[in-house]
Amino acid sequence: MNETNRVYLYDTTLRDGAQTSGVDFTVADKIAIAQELDALGIDYVEGGWPGANPTDNAFFADPPKLPRAIFTAFGMTRRPGHSASNDPGLSALLNSPAKAVCIVGKTWDFHVDVALAIPRDENLTLIADSIREIKARGREPLFDAEHFFDGYKANPDYALSCVQAAYEAGARWVVLCDTNGGTLPHEVEAIVTEVAKRIPGSHLGIHTHNDTENAVSNSLAAVRAGVRLVQGTLNGLGERCGNANLLSLIPSLSVKMGFDVGISKEGMGRLVHISRMLDERLNRTPNRHAAYVGESAFAHKGGLHVSAVEKDPASYEHVDPSLVGNRRHVLVSDQAGRSNILARLREVGVNVDPKDDRVGQLVDLVKQKEYEGFAFDGAEASFELLARRALGEVPDYFRLAAFRVLDERRWNAKGELVTMSEATTKVEVPGPNGPDNVMTVAEGNGPVNALDQALRKALIPVYPALEGMRLVDYKVRILNAQDGTKAVTRVMIETADRHGHRWATVGVSANVIDASFNALSDSITYCLYRSGAAIDSTKAA
Amino acid sequence: MNETNRVYLYDTTLRDGAQTSGVDFTVADKIAIAQELDALGIDYVEGGWPGANPTDNAFFADPPKLPRAIFTAFGMTRRPGHSASNDPGLSALLNSPAKAVCIVGKTWDFHVDVALAIPRDENLTLIADSIREIKARGREPLFDAEHFFDGYKANPDYALSCVQAAYEAGARWVVLCDTNGGTLPHEVEAIVTEVAKRIPGSHLGIHTHNDTENAVSNSLAAVRAGVRLVQGTLNGLGERCGNANLLSLIPSLSVKMGFDVGISKEGMGRLVHISRMLDERLNRTPNRHAAYVGESAFAHKGGLHVSAVEKDPASYEHVDPSLVGNRRHVLVSDQAGRSNILARLREVGVNVDPKDDRVGQLVDLVKQKEYEGFAFDGAEASFELLARRALGEVPDYFRLAAFRVLDERRWNAKGELVTMSEATTKVEVPGPNGPDNVMTVAEGNGPVNALDQALRKALIPVYPALEGMRLVDYKVRILNAQDGTKAVTRVMIETADRHGHRWATVGVSANVIDASFNALSDSITYCLYRSGAAIDSTKAA
């Protein structure tokens, strides 16, 4: 592929992505993410803004080794009244070990007049001086043209003169920013086309925000109009509605549009991993509907449809899921037919002869369970257990003999309202001389937490694999809502182990506590089954 | 605005949106959502597929009154071997009360050859016959051209002949579907431009999926190329990565592109509400980063930027947030909060002088409650009570002194697994000689039902208005999911009285039973307040 076919990727997860509400990177996070981005094959890794906050100072003071990527510092043009070489902000950038420096400057006349309050020509000088200084100090200069599209709409000549000043002063890349995120794709295409008449596309970049849900499309439109650098973030992190999502852009640019984005086939296969890694680091629930990398991105529902997909995946899937490290996912639902169940079984690694009589029984069992209110979409671990139990593969690790949960709310002697939950469980576990009945009692924040605590007290001495297992999500839904609190309750639980593996289980009962117990019980059993726990009577308490 | 400037909106939340993994609409959900869509001003509300499953059969058997929208049934073309008038699938559609019928048919030669396995000409006949039958039976016919873009890429002549067959047979709208979701915006624009040379744009529609994160952009590209009907879903629900998100499309089409989408200014102002209402119904966490309607969509971080935003919002916000019912979120105290609260108060019929000091206190109270985890979108009765209590308008009908709930699960003497819930409450109610403490005990199907029963036993003798009140929905969500069962629990309850009036309340606590009690207590209080119950000590037990 020739030079003009090469699109460079610039990641700003660690700087613009850090503006996301609720996101707070530690230095360790920044190091790990920068290394993942480098391994993926991203061209520019923007580490942050040295001089702006203690985290970025610490990160830039001792940055990770990035064998491939250009480590980049972000900052702003020199301020009025300082020469570029004496500007404290620019100095912080140039004293950092960054190989490239990206500075943001104004290009909207209104902001020059009101926010900077300097003559418009002086703004051009600020931009040109700053770029020249970066170049003189041996770093690669980039210019982020803030509010460029709004500026262009207000005063095209002035906006163009700003980006031309940066280009003529030696900016390697002039990046057109849709800072407020309100520009639509056809506008981006038209405006970039005009800019590309003055500055070659091989020196133009694009930076978009998702305020109209068009950040990805705006970036693609800019590339089609000539730009050859794209700024974005992993999972579309960023303030308000986020920045352009690199994980959606990469496969569209390379697989679909034929651009060389500098990422190898192996790198492409890591996209799902990188997406999940970031969510794990930030303790965010992964978006299962994310393009390309979401857990549901290649999910198929429905019996007839599933057999067609299996016969000819290419005619039902827009790309091969394995290209981005994803996989086909066959959902079990009340439309489940035999082919659906078989496909789903293969997916969870259960091998059964399609002619096996037990497949028919399993289809009936799934339908019966769904009629009772179970939902196996999104509770794959319960589905796998159901199947493996039907095939006789799951040992009885423990048996609940009884539980009792007491919840109380009252005014105490000091006149304060207090609540209390206490659970008692009696569990049968393997012991040295046959089954042992273990009784435990525990308090909790609420009834399910108390029950969880009491069960763990009983089981962890026998099954140490359960240590570190934690509940990460808990949802309750009432079915047959006509009957209100008398109706059937469905509880979905998501659990994680200490390695970050997650699994989801479901429980159904008229009683929310009982339904929670059922989901909890499946979750524990699944953890034990997956860890290969043996029923070892010698460990019994 | 003239006819060609009118873009029609077609909502498929209740059909294609129901394919979302984890989404499972009840009939009550479908009724409520259809009514919200109608009130918003959506042109076509697709209710589902009559004949395909029991929920859709029940919904179509007794559909809600929609004064404005065209209630639409979805199905498929007649099957080979049946005449259109004898086809069981088509009959189910035409025996439904739908005013319009949208049928899906094949347009990709490969699928005709392999999935249908009929001669390609016969497929054209299936399409034309089905459309003619719908028209002959006095319904408005629409044609969803499945896999149209992939089909066009493989065999443009055949794909075009399919949609022309539908159009010539009398389809009001021919909807071009990107079924696999892999088509990029520039391809959509090019292909739609070709189609529009054969079929007028005033009869063309678009249906896109978000597999490359371009569903919204693909829809906009199609409109720019001439189509005048857009199919999509609320919040972009839909299988895999979702369908085109109508809540992003509506403001871009109308506010930014100047199309008339048939939605009034008041309707536009309900977009945020509708987004949250759907999430609450489905027990999904709202996406705070959603374009236009997300909680963070107009969030500004503190400092200098905020005062600049306050001075000149238009230069920092791509649209006015109030246009879509959203508001600016800033860290400093903001006018937006105050006017928002005032608007919401007016909405629930609470009239208060904007200059009243208590409005400021109420703003602080709402913020405090929301910080604690309350969500008043979808729990309007609790919001109204909060406001009216702050204004001193709500009597203390009763006061809970204490409750205790016991849940038990054990094997009985016959070897059967039995569960039991028993609740004891101590409630202070007005009595003939001052407050009376009434102790009651009741059993229930589950802990919340037991508590509900015990409370009623105590209160109905004093407040007969509570007779006939019943719980119709009950939902639980965990906040701060990182902590699993130890986290804060939010319970939303929907209640109806014997006249069919419904109201929703919310309760928050670390303990699910306690949170349920809080929501239940609000629900009872709201019922009494609405019924105008007096605190009448002579009726006390």
UniProtKB/TrEMBL annotation, chains A, B:
Biological or metabolic pathway of the protein: Amino-acid biosynthesis; L-isoleucine biosynthesis; 2-oxobutanoate from pyruvate: step 1/3
Annotated GO MF terms: (R)-citramalate synthase activity; 2-isopropylmalate synthase activity
Family annotation (CDD domains): DRE_TIM_LeuA3
A Pfam family annotated for this UniProt entry: LeuA_dimer
Catalytic activity: pyruvate + acetyl-CoA + H2O = (3R)-citramalate + CoA + H(+)
EC top class, as a word: transferase
Gene3D superfamilies recorded: 1.10.238.260, 3.30.160.270, Aldolase class I
EC number: 2.3.3.21
Keyword terms of this UniProt record: Amino-acid biosynthesis, Branched-chain amino acid biosynthesis, Isoleucine biosynthesis, Transferase
GO aspect biological process, one term: L-leucine biosynthetic process
Family recorded in the similarity comment: Belongs to the alpha-IPM synthase/homocitrate synthase family.
Protein name: Citramalate synthase
